[in-house]
Write a structure and sequence with these properties.
The complex is a heterodimer of chains A (206) and B (525).
Chain A (H helix, E strand, L loop, with lengths): L1 H8 L4 E7 L3 E7 L12 H19 L17 H4 L26 H33 L5 H22 L38
Helix pairs in contact in A: 4-5
Chain B lengths: L6 H15 L1 H12 L2 E2 H7 L6 H13 L4 E5 L2 E5 L2 H5 L4 H12 L1 H13 L2 E2 H12 L3 H13 L3 E3 L3 E3 L6 E2 L43 E4 L1 H18 L6 H17 L12 H10 L6 H11 L9 H20 L2 H13 L4 H8 L3 H13 L4 E6 L9 E6 L2 H29 L1 H19 L5 H15 L2 H57 L1
Antiparallel strand pairs in B: 1-3, 2-3, 4-8, 5-8, 6-7, 9-10
Helix pairs in contact in B: 1-2, 1-18, 6-7, 7-8, 8-9, 10-11, 11-12, 12-13, 14-15, 14-21, 15-17, 16-17, 18-21, 19-20
Classes of the chains: A mainly alpha (206), B mainly alpha (525).
Main location (chain A): nucleus
Protein name (chain A): DNA-directed RNA polymerase III subunit
Keywords (chain A): Membrane, Nucleus, Transmembrane, Transmembrane helix
Amino acid sequence: MAAYTALKKEPPPLYPVVYYCDIFIIGFFWALTRDPLPLSNAKELEYMVDITHELLQRFHDSPFYLEKEQKRDFRRYTDKYCSTKKDEFEPFWNRIPAELNWKKRSKDTKPAAKKRRTEKLATFTEENLQRLEQAENMDKSKEAVPPEEKDEELEDEQEEHGIVEDDEEAISDEDYLEGENDYVQTYFDAGDDFDADDDNIDEDAY
Amino acid sequence: MFRDMTTVEVDLCVAIIQEYFGHDAALVGKILLTNMLTFHGLIMDLKSKLSVKQIRRIMAIFEHHNILIYTASERGVRYTIPIENVLRILRIPRSMVIVKLMYGKVAEAIFEEIFSQGKISCSDCIRHVVERLQCEINEAKAKFVRLTESQLLIKCPEIENAEYDCPVFAPLVDPFMMPSQILDGSDEIVPMEENLRKRKATIYKPDSDANTLWSINWPRVERFLRDELIVGLISQNELLDETSVNLARAVLKVGEIKADLIASQSNPIAVQEVSKYAREHEIKLSRDEIEQKLSILGKESSGIIHYDLAFDCICRQNIESAIREKLDDRSVRIFRLLCTKGYLEEEQMEKLAMLSSKEVKEICYVLLDHNFITIRPIHRTNDFNPVRCLYLYSVQLQQVAKSLVCLSSKALRNVIIRRQAEAKHNETLTDRQLKMESVISNIKKDTNMDEETKNTQIADVKEMYLTESDIVKLDKLKRAQTALHKAALELEQSLFIFQQYLLFKKSSTLQIADKKKSRKKTEIV
């Protein structure tokens, strides 16, 4: 009863409180009209506090937690000794959409393709040689096998490979480059009409 | 999906993410909590603050911890973070205590491991737990099996189709089945084929179950939490002794197996099932005793557990305690009166509560201020004459619960931020203390000196690093941190209660709406 009659005259005063975390938050809060009840001392609650503390520690030590990099005004000697080393985080790549993958890069297929191309060619020529050897042996041993068929087969395969070869050796810009000459790549030949448009420019005529 | 959230809850989730995952993750989380975006949209929002690689990494971390969800749509893959997923992080300590009480220390460690790793295979989990606790592998295996049997752990969906940009998941067939082979990975080196480049590292033989990942089955955990709350409610009744309370727990467990996870009422439970369960779990009561105690617990309910009514009660109790803390006992009296009677005028309240009219008026206005009760003016005449206007007070429990959800979220966020701020403010002091402790432990390990010199050295070190006032400050800081942690846990409990109550209410209104629809259909037909 007494509390209410006291309050009726004017509202309780506002107390400015400054909370700061990464930014300063200034808030004005009403003072409490009654004291808060004390927290319980139950063992369960204290055990839970320990668990939370442990969990937080675990998360902060794990690779999941990123400390905000503090830019100091000057470098300190202890900087490289203070920072703890954490394991790199490796997600299960096949469980997340491909766009979240920061390791695979889809743009670098050209050098790999080139390597593949040369590898394929190398294996192709080897295979071809082997086949020709085999064909020779076969010819020697069995003359009954018609060489025409063999040739056709070989031709077909060559065509296939040839087509593949053609595709692989698609015309790229590099083919237009001539190597080992004195022409500068960035040479620009303007021709006679380049500077013809300026009528009234007062240039010093040397 | 976004209709049920409030800015307050979003802010709380941002604070939680910041605490557990860091500042950058909080920036990403803030945008994803309120929107459903494509990856490109997210990059546009965060262009100035974070690099693309960092964003990718943070999103992968979120997905790994089951916080982020995504759906494939025509415009690409769209990502968002539901609030519930973040709030679950706060419920871990309580659920760990329940797991420990029911299944033991090793099971608790398994639970913690799975939570802190997000998703992990069975073998890896058991290995880590054995390393941490130095226990037997068989024991860890057995506990893992127990946890899967009680459905606290659930398998992550398998990948059906990995060709498209977004993985397609197959529906879970046996979500709780243990893999047949575990822990068979070893340090043998698998012989590599010759075509592979030489730079690849040696491949160790993986476990057979490396692809079946487990994570926490949250609906079941929430069910456990709810059961504990109901047992708490029942044990408040002083007429019941401990065996009855245990029996009540048994009844709830039996009900758990039968009903849906979010059912508002369980299916009827027979006495036989309860006695069977009691026998299995070593509750030494004869069949007759069980019947007797059950009849005390709920004579006319015919074996149905009414979760919604229980939560109604718990919610009401919490609101009353909130009123008692903020205001005083008489306000609680008025509140209870209104809850039981429905709509009342001031004069009626005077008579029923036995308070003077002045007091009643004051209390009602204060309660109105804090949004605990609502007022409804009813005009008797057509001309809205205020003299002839009747003002009815009532309690709209859902409204009150919603406002208290906001209040507890705000309070929880404040507590978290305050705790972080205090820790940061005293960072130098705590660092010094850590250094001092490491120096002392080095001295203790040193074998060159004898006890006396060690002690003198330790005393010197202590003096050098921390003064008396520093020690007092550190002690105060530690007590403040524990108090704030406790406050956060209690607040989280209240938040859970109010949210569950609102969930039950929502599902019951949906049920009523469905019934009306079906009735209308039958009428039309």
